[in-house]
Fold:
Amino acid sequence: MITFIYGTYGSGKTFSVLNEIKKDTSEGRHTFLIVPDQEAVQSELTTLNYLPNSAQLNLEVLGFSRLYNRVCREYGGLSYKYITKPMKHLIMWSVMRELSGALYEFGKYSDRDFSICDVMLSTIGELKASSITPEMLEDALADLEPDSSLWRRISDISCIYKAYDEFILDGYSDSSDDISRLYDVLRTKHFFSGANVYIDSFTSFTAAEHRVIERIFADAENVTVTIPLPSPECNDISVKSIKCSEERLVHSARINGGYTRKILRGNRRALSPVLAHISENLWRLDLSSGYGKIINDGSISAEICDNVYAEAEFAANKILDLLRSGERCRDILVLMRSPENYRGIIEPALEKNGIPYYFSDRTDLNSLPPVKLLLSALRIKQYNWQKNDIITHIKTGIYSFPTRSCDLFEEYVNTWNLSGSKFRTDEPWSMNPDGYAESLSERGRDILSAANDIKIRLTSTLERFFIRLDASENIPDMCRAVYSYFTDIELDARLSELALAEEKRGNQKSARELLSVYEIILNSLADIAHLLPDKKASTDEFALILRAVFNNTDFGTIPTSVDEVVIGSAATLRAQNPKYTFVLGLCDGEFPAVINDSGIFSSADRSSLEELGIELSSDTDTRSSDELMFAQRAFASPSHGLFISTSSAEFGGRSRNPSIPFNRVLAMLEGYKPHRFSGNDIGYLAGAPRSAVSHLRTIEDDGSREALRMALSTHIPKIRSLSDDDLSQGDCSVSENTVKEIFGNKAGFSASKFERFVLCPMSFYGTYVLDLRKKVNSDFMSSDMGTFVHAILERMVAFATSPKEDGALPTDEEITEMTERAVLEYIERISPVELRKSKKLSHVYTRLKSLALLMVRNIADEFAKSDFSPAFFELSIDGRNGNPPPLEFVSEDGFTLSFSGKIDRVDLYRDDGRVYIRVVDYKTGTKDFSLDDVEHGINTQMLLYLFMLCSKADNDFCRSIGVSDGDKPVPAGVVYLSANIPIIQSAFPENAEEIAKKAQSELKRSGLLLNSPEILHAMSHDLSSKILAGIRVKKKTGELYGDALASSEKFDSLYSEITDTIQKISLELRKGKAGATPLRYGSSDPCSYCQMKPFCRIDKIQGGNDNG
Structure:
């Protein structure tokens, strides 16, 4: 007798089947329970729990694949050499290569494109599931229009299909053929004779499975099949595939003696009438009221979230509430249509709330460290040691390099853009990690040492591997080379170490993956070698083969605990009776998914083939119906509560709309409004301390944020400091105790360091306290150009202005020759040997040499008409070895700011027993001195230098320059010499001398000079406006005037003004001011060149508002 049990999801079909099995086994009847393969283990567990122990003597629980195995064990014919999924791809790749010249449509695809193999295997798999043979395809060609698109594709597919099967039959078996082979066995063997057979939990069957079921109908004593339809008359839009299978089952039953029907009403699993109503009526479009409204009893919760991150937080918070109310993790199910869209998003949300989970989804083998290690090693060989491949390789963590050493190595490689032959040289690297610098810092030494250590160890290991690959005569030899490489690096032992570390961190899943992956890789290598024993391959082809194999290797882990929340796909995951189900991602186009014609056959093609007797498994309409069925099955899965969510925006910010299932639920719930979670709702984010801490900064309401901070302080030490405002908030500060720890009672500053604090305290702390720095690269930056010019000027100005033994100054030719020599010597000191022949750098050096020579000549011309003389170059203000002492400012509370630094050039003039000092600063850009800057505390550097030299008497420096005891040097002025490379344009050809004169005229000076005719004449005998910048002479009276003039009293008042400004800013420093408050006034914007911008983000918050 054949019985069909009808019932919607949760109606008790499986329970009814178990009761019948219990009765059969108690009577000693041989009984079979056939379920989907993915449910076989769970069904066995269910029967063990529900049925008496004696029932197992007469009961077998099987899936269709295990059924073939069981039948073969009875009658013979079992194969032990099944072809694996990765090997199928290799066979198809090999077949496509061999047949490419004989194919009409598919011969044009590159043998480097494995995607065509995916499509072709999918097509052949569908043909086999539909019991379509190559011969049937060949027969269909006669009825198709010759040389039409469909004819050409069918011709190619039949050819490929036949060659593929012949390749496999040569030494393997394909599990895709098992069901067809099972049917062939059952045609002659009466395996089910006298047995009772129950077929449960299927939503549809393939054509091959239907044929097997026909044989079961013919042989078994009794057959019961459950059908997930509420009634035989049901024809909802979500049941097309179920209905098609049901109609074929009924047809087969009629042929085999008829059938009876049993109908189970309602969703009995749902303990709530609302849950039952929703699941039963989700796709019923014939309700008189339109939707069949019902009042929500609290068993359904709908959420509209900002994005998928907010969805994850919503799910984590609600699960945490359930666990705190006494529910178990294993009773909670989280479903989405495409779990990959939530990978890396939902796991952190659950972990922060301390929720154990199991992600029931395939792990990408290529994402695991040893596979990335191998593939990146091959890329290194393929692409000649490119830096990105090398960095990827060492960051797999397989090598035992310390993490810090790997970071330093990466920084060094990126700094000097090292690739190719720079890795393969035996010579150790010598380039300065700090870029084009003369000296090697302590930090630089650490980086250089770590980089060279990794380079030596890495290149020696990989070169051995590459030599073995090059010596390989065929693919098996290349596989052996890989194994030797793994042995060299002791991969097996290293993976055990890494797995143990992951286990200690509580990452059980990662630990199991690391312990399992080594064997999987070795098995893959063995399969490749066995399948392609005589094939030769280049490194490119071998890498392609490995990548294809790993891409198609199914790799997953079993749950690591008996009590975990299960996460999976609504299309494939079959969970047993969860109490609570979360369905995420109910967005238009995502769930239900949009179904398009994909693969080789369109819907029109399928219709044409169906007319020829070739009926394929499903079309777009059927698959679209299945999408609706997945939603209904998910909604029907829980017994106690259903949580559904949608997101209103994609990752990129584009808006999204709720999908039809989400809207249908809302339409059926009388007066119910979904909750909207904006992403910073304290009620959702503060479920657990760790979660609350991670979201504390995103909570916009000040009161809520402060309340949460206070609540957390009892859970997590130092929570207040951890949860302070963002660095980019202007009112941020550090405690006075911290200030004392950092600076003590005396803080040493340079003028530029002090100015950094004035311009922006946050930038100051990032640069000088946290010691953050922008990544250096091998480009010759503007700062390097400035250092270059300073170094040449330091040497050449002294040379150009110092008389020779005969008392004459050096000639222009001698200056040019000496400048050439100074440039070459400097290049040798700062530039790596490998880069000295670089055309780009040679061009830069040539331009800088021209600029330096231009400035030297300009300065030499200046001193030829001046009584001032250059006395010091790069003079350090540190009080050592006769140098001038630092300038100190002491506050009322005893805190001292001590200013030191280095002055580019100090010029002296002696007259009537007095010593006048002028300080000069070289700039490789434009610089205009303004007294307006001083009152803001910026651009005080040169004045501070001048006051450092002139504010004290009776010290070694004063005595060394001839200042009388008790006297002080007299400030004569500050001068900025701006050294932009001038571009000279002329409408007429000019000689070199005229061009040089024009270039000289483009050099600019600015500053502040002592308003004394005698001193100004001493600076420039002819009172040149090019030398005395900003000063003019009245033609009638000969009086000197201009903004650049300052009396002695003005210099004194400037010293007082700067002192007051420094004391005021010193107080801000001592109070811990550390916020992002850039000083913006006029055209000045310190953010435009600040290196702290990557973590400050002040422009995004303040919108570039003026703070000055």
